[in-house]
Design a protein that fits this description.
Elements: H1 10-23, H2 29-44, E1 47-51, H3 58-75, E2 83-87, H4 90-106, E3 115-117, H5 127-134, H6 161-174, H7 193-196, H8 216-222, E4 229-233, H9 234-246, E5 258-261, H10 267-275, E6 277-280, H11 283-298, H12 304-307, H13 313-318, H14 321-336, E7 345-348, H15 353-380, H16 388-416, E8 422-430, E9 433-441, H17 446-454, E10 460-464, H18 474-480, E11 487-490, E12 501-503, H19 518-532, E13 538-542, H20 546-555, H21 558-561, E14 564-566, H22 573-584, E15 589-593, E16 610-613, H23 624-633, H24 637-654, E17 666-669, H25 673-676, H26 678-681, E18 691-693, H27 696-700
Parallel strand pairs: 1-10, 1-11, 2-4, 2-5, 3-4, 5-10, 12-17, 12-18, 13-15, 13-16, 14-15, 16-17
Antiparallel strand pairs: 6-9, 7-8, 8-9
Amino acid sequence: MTPEHSQFHPDIVEAYRRLGESAGFGWRDEQVRLSQEIMEALLKGRVLCAEAPTGTGKSLAYLIAAIAVQGIREREGKDVMPIVVATNTVALQAQLFDKDIPVLTRMGFLGSDDMVLAKGRGRYMCLHEAQRIAGHPLRPIQRQEDLFGFGSEELDPRMPAEKRGAERLLGVWRAGAWQGDVDAWDGEPPAIWEAVRSSPETCIGEKCWAYEKACPFYSARRSLAGARIIIANHDMVLVDLKARRNGAEPVFPVSDYMLVIDEAHHLPSKAVEHAKTRIAVRDGLYLARQIAELAEKCAPLTPLSVLVDVTGWYQVLTSRKFTRVIRDLGGWLSNVFPDAGAGPYHRFAECPEDLAVLISEVTRPGWFISLTLKKVAHALGHVAATEPELARKLEVESLSLSAKLEHYLSGLKQFADQDTSVRWVGVETHDRKTQYTICTGPLEGAQVLEPDLFAVISRTVLVSATLRVEGDFSFFARRAGLPSSTRYLALPHIFPYEKSVLHIPRLGMRPPRDPQGYARYTALLAAWLSANIDPREATLVLFTSRQIMEMTRARMAHPLRAQVIAQKPRGHQSQVREHRARIDSGDGSVLFGVATLSEGVDLPGAYCRHVIITRIPFEHPNDPIREAVREHYGSEHFEANIMPEATRKLIQAAGRLIRRETDVGRLTLLDDRLLEIERVGRMLDSLPPFHRIADAAALSA
């Protein structure tokens, strides 16, 4: 070890030395330091919050740290506690698994079974549901090797589409050509997928014939048990933490784990979304009807009356009282909110007393019905083999209805609870029918993360390229609920940003707040873009509104308008591929996009020479939780929340320009508020150190 490397752990130094010799990776002090800090945090059981700018190599840094931690614990004779690495999305999981991990595996840092890709339950087919939809008996399927084209045979076109889709999936799985993972399906996910994917509401666990060996979900889940490193995503971690809090089956089949959260700036908002509840009042009526229909189906099974440990179970499941109290609840809401004319939602600081009484009148019989359904399901599992197929089918239906009913009742109860931070009633009118939803949510992610994450998993690392605002971690720390003992690390920029230009021209009009100003604003935008975009190169233009994007595109000068590729409402992969193909063929290309293109899109080198941000991405309080946050912070809301979040998003969007050390280009900010409002102009201080100019004449010179 050289003297300059003595500050780092020998295992970390050795890993980077081997990477340099065998894979051509250059030594970067910033990357090695990040590995060192992560290793120390995981070993010492503390929280680390680290900002690592683009180019640091954070993915490799935390993987090397995780490997080093496992090796050190093993040498010390300690149990090998698994490390969960959570990215923001499934796509980023796959990128990590396909790009960085193979390098480490080839060099012998990892064995083939040391690292496992974890996916949510909904990514896997439920064999039981597929059998039910296809009309097959609910019994084991014999898999066969695909020697004779099993699964590729023609299906009767007269067969109902849903049944035909289930038959196709079962056929390909039975032939061994597919393991039931939707991401491994050849082509677009089948239309039937939503109906056959695994879900907690339909899964009967150990009672299913497929549970032990065949079930795609449980087979994948068992593979996690022996893994040293589990590659997951934020959603899975949040579901796992909630399950552990509620005493339910966790996502990760381990008693404890260490945690590395990548793209951590998303975690607070993800936590808020996961904690929201949304209960459609009318769903209770559907459930009551389905439960009564189930009771009618169960009644002919004679032994059931003896086995169910509930007196008058049939009367409980067919009682009209539950339906009546749900109608009373809907009636109260319709009297208070006759239609959606007064707004799509109405917030309550507290649950009105008479509404709380109505909710109690729904939940009291509801919980008893749910308990009865579970006892009916248990009895169905012991019914004599006179009609085993029917009994098994009704058992699954009973458990599914019980789970749905408990979700319904829990949402109503949460609305009435005094500790609930934000509660509102949604009002929607369709075909002259008004529908009501009972909704709740936390004020900020900290209300979820403090008790569920940081109080439970002390060995946690949060890393991202954008965690600070104006050089300060406090905004993120407050939103995430980071403990006071958290260690903070901010690494310097890697890329030579000073070689690229930041241009802030004056458009002549501030972005309008209402649609009345859209016509003039988009005309000015279109004129500026038409005059200043070089049609021979790659340009990315980012908008905060799809409507503004489409209006601007329509007003652009014709020659350039033909070069514009506009992001579609669903996804952006195909537009990015088309953009890249144009550049590869030697043509220019202009890619128009909204928020999802402002982050996570990698267009290095010639694929992006000019990024134009048309508007500072200030959030507007257009939903109940944001309104509640605004009221909670009062006059401090703009400084405490709006400015920091807009600054973070601006940094993310600006980061689309420089993706590699050799990249150079231009970043243009087309928002006059940066020039006219001092506080807004200070946002520029949080951007990387571009060479800054403020007028078109200087740019052309």
